[in-house]
Specification:
The chain is of the alpha+beta class. It has a single domain, classed as HIT-like (HIT family, subunit A, 2-Layer Sandwich), CATH 3.30.428.10. 24% of the residues lie in helices and 22% in strands. The N and C termini lie far apart (31 Å). Bound molecules: guanosine-5'-monophosphate and zinc ion.
Length: 113
């Protein structure tokens, strides 16, 4: 399987890692859309959020816990931050290995683009 984010997990492609444990990796986005833009991904390959199975619920919940911890560590938890999963074409999903975007460090707009 030719998956960019699996290669990042395997360290075949370098990334700026901000958190890692046995189930997930968090790293800086290569093309940041905010002063803080981090991607949180499971080490298990799941192509879209539609493929999240009930057995993955704890894993995905842990990704949210990691996002909270990163926001706290970066000092933006109280100011605010945004978490996004894009799914399929109209949402703009480009990498088909689920990733939770964490955006922070500027005023976010609503509705999102
Ligand atoms: P999507 O559009 O699929 O929700 O988000 C994919 C994200 O992955 C984009 O924000 C893009 O900048 C980021 N990205 C794509 N290739 C790389 C890469 O090689 N390294 C890193 N760190 N981020 C990447
Ligand atoms: Zn993958």
């Amino acid at each position: 399987m030719d998956c960019l984010f699996c290669k990042i997990i395997e360290k075949k492609i370098p990334s700026k890692i901000v958190y890692e444990d046995n189930r997930m990796l968090a790293f800086e986005d290569i093309n940041p859309q905010a002063p803080i833009h981090i991607l949180i991904i499971p080490k298990k390959h799941i192509s879209t959020v539609l493929e999240i199975a009930p057995a993955d619920n704890e894993l995905v919940g842990s990704m949210l816990q990691a996002a909270n911890n990163i926001a706290r560590d970066k000092g933006v938890a109280d100011r605010g931050f945004r978490l996004v999963f894009n799914c399929n074409r109209e949402a703009g999903q480009e990498v088909f290995h689920i990733h939770l975007h964490l955006f922070a460090g500027r005023q976010m707009h609503w509705p999102p683009g």
